[in-house]
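Subgroup meeting minutes
Present: P.N., E.W., G.H.
Scribe: E.W.

1. P.N. recapped why we're keeping a running log of single-chain structure predictions: easier to compare across weeks, and new members can see raw inputs and outputs side by side.
2. G.H. added today's entry (148 aa).
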Amino acid sequence: MDNEMKKYENKLSTNGYKLTLQRRDIISVLLENKDKHFSADELFTEVKKINKDVGLATIYRSLELFCKLGITRQLDFDSPYKYYEIKIEGDHHHHFICVECGKIIEFDDKMMGKFEKSLEKEYNFKILDHRIKFYGLCNECEKKLKGD
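Output recorded in log:
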């Protein structure tokens, strides 16, 4: 994790920012939970476990800065909250969202790469980014609804 932390520290410093203790703790929590999607409040709760002095305003300001610098990604799952995840180089994935319990499941897009290239060629359009979300029922909720 030290190598990854160094990358984020460099990204901050090359843009004129310091890796403060609070920012380090926020990034640490995000790195330790790479597969989790945090609301600001959830992230605050987790960071508070390792740094009692962090405030919710610091979480919001840091997330705004991290998104601007490409350290984190803000996710919109059509809920009242925005969610955040750490951006890992070379990792591109999409999400299944359970409409019943709100569970979020990541999946990679290996097949999407070819599809994306064919779209670029067919429409003479350079795709810079894309996000795909599928809404449905997770296995547990589907079983509950069926009465299994």
